Amino acid sequence: MSAFPASKLEKTLGKPPGEWTAEDLARIVDEEDIGLVTLMHVGGDGVLKALDFVPQTRAHLLGILRHGERADGSSLFDGLPSGASDIRLKPRIATAFLSPFSPVPTLALLCGHCDREGRPLPQSPDTIVRRAFDRLRDEAGLEYWALGEVEYFLGRPANDVEIERRRDRGYHATSPFVAGEGMRRRALRHLADMGVAVKYAHAEVGLVDERRTGAASGSSTRSSWDWRRFRRPPTRSFSPAGPCSISRTKKGSPAVSIPS
User: Fold this and answer.
1) 12: nearest Cα among 116, 96, 69
2) 2-33 burial, b if ≥16 CB within 10 A, otherwise e?
3) Cis peptide leading into residue 91 (ω within 30°)
4) Under a CB-based contact definition with an 8 Å cutoff, are residues 252 and 35 in contact?
5) CA separation (Å) from 158 to 108, 163, 211, 215, 219?
6) What are the DSSP calls for the chain, one per residue?
7) What does the radius of gyration of the chain's CA atoms come to, in whole angstroms?
8) pTM of the complete model beyond 0.70
């Protein structure tokens, strides 16, 4: 089997995300014996949320994929009165991925938010950024491209063997001269499997030392990944705990930071 494309779902379906349909995803759920479907979205607090389903029938699954599901907006966004709090999570088919984080086979999709009339919810981070992008394009004739960078530090027990170099070293360092290489590479592979167009990942410059009286001392080493987000399809980005950076590139696709 070919190694390309990197995304597991794209490889299985045999076509790019922009061409996926609800019927395609329903077929994968059936053929791969996927037991859970998760609708993921970002609430007003900026935190990733999830709503889980066990599809009961094919019709039930297609209904979820095509129409999404109702949610209590007053519990997700400030300023929505309880009497008008019905909102709908609207799945974006092109963002689907097979979750590597679930203990059971799971199909996950990212969602936008609609009000009870089916209009984009004004309070949604997804709606806000999309409208800002459209306004910049329409009024200035520009398309917004964004490159995200996330960095993280990994801690280790103080009694571990000291192998890292001085704090001004470590850029692109590899094992055994830097900790966490295995985790970084596994995370990189997970992101690629999910369809995140990762450019690269590497160890970064930096070392944090902590010394406290009466407490164990330890240190951590810094890693970095780079990603670029795309307008079509807009995709959610995962970041492991702490700072890190991942770079995405997809020829011909304008990039825009869109919370998903």
Assistant:
1) 96
2) eeebbbbbbeebeeebeebebebbbebbeeee
3) no
4) no
5) 39, 12, 10, 10, 7
6) ----SS-HHHHHHTS-GGG--HHHHHHHHHHTT--EEEEEEE-TTS-EEEEEE---SHHHHHHHHHH-EEEEGGGTSTT--GGG-EEEEEE-GGG-EE-SS-SS-EEEEEEEEE-TTSPBPTT-HHHHHHHHHHHHHHHH------EEEEEEEEEE-TTS------TT--TT--TTSSTTHHHHHHHHHHHHHTT----EEEEEEEEEEE--TTS--EEEEEEEEEEE--SSS-------SS-B-B----TT--------
7) 21
8) yes
Q: Per-residue pLDDT tens, the chain, 260 aa: give them.
A: 566 778 899 999 999 999 999 999 999 999 999 999 999 999 999 999 999 999 999 999 999 999 999 999 989 998 887 667 899 999 999 999 999 999 999 999 999 999 988 999 999 999 999 999 999 999 999 998 877 777 887 776 666 655 555 555 788 888 887 778 898 899 889 999 999 888 888 888 876 655 554 544 445 555 554 443 333 333 333 333 333 333 343 433 333 333 33
- Paired tokens of 53: 């389903």
Q: Give the integer Cα–Cα distance in Å for 100 and 207.
A: 30
- Indicate the burial class of 34 (C-beta count within 10 angstroms; 0-12, 13-18, 19 or more): buried
